[in-house]
Amino acid sequence: MSLTKPFTSQINTSDIASSEFASKASVDAVQGNVTALSANVGGGTITSQRFNTAANSNTFTLSQSVTDANAVLVTLSGVVQVPIDAYMVSNTTLTLNNTSPLISNLRLEVRYL
Asked: Could you tell me if 102 and 60 lie in one domain?
């Protein structure tokens, strides 16, 4: 699905086809998360950092100190990663919890919330 409207903190549920979400409760939950994120950002800018993965490492050095995995949004090749399950943070170190070697040159993005 491509989005043609600019991002806002309001989601028009009539624009979302029912086949894309399991229920109105799901849409309401997404709306709540977007609204909460907008309130937390307070009109500021969310900063991000991008990395390319290497097959021999699953740790990355962050430009900001982070004490809680929920304080960052991590995506790997565009797929959102689950805090604690998929990654952990400690100060300026992000560690992916993978057991297999990573494929080289995947895009890893970290957004500081």
From this structure: yes
Reported as a single tens digit per residue, the pLDDT across 3-47 is 444 444 444 545 444 444 445 555 565 555 555 565 565 557 789
* Cα dihedral across residues 8, 17, 86, 98: positive or negative: negative
pTM summary value: 0.62
User: What's the total number of domains in the chain?
Assistant: 2
The answer for 92, left when phi > 0, alpha when psi is -120 to 50, beta otherwise, is alpha
DSSP characters over 45-90: PPPEEEEE-BTTB-EEEEEEEES-GGGEEEEETTEEPPBTTTEEEE
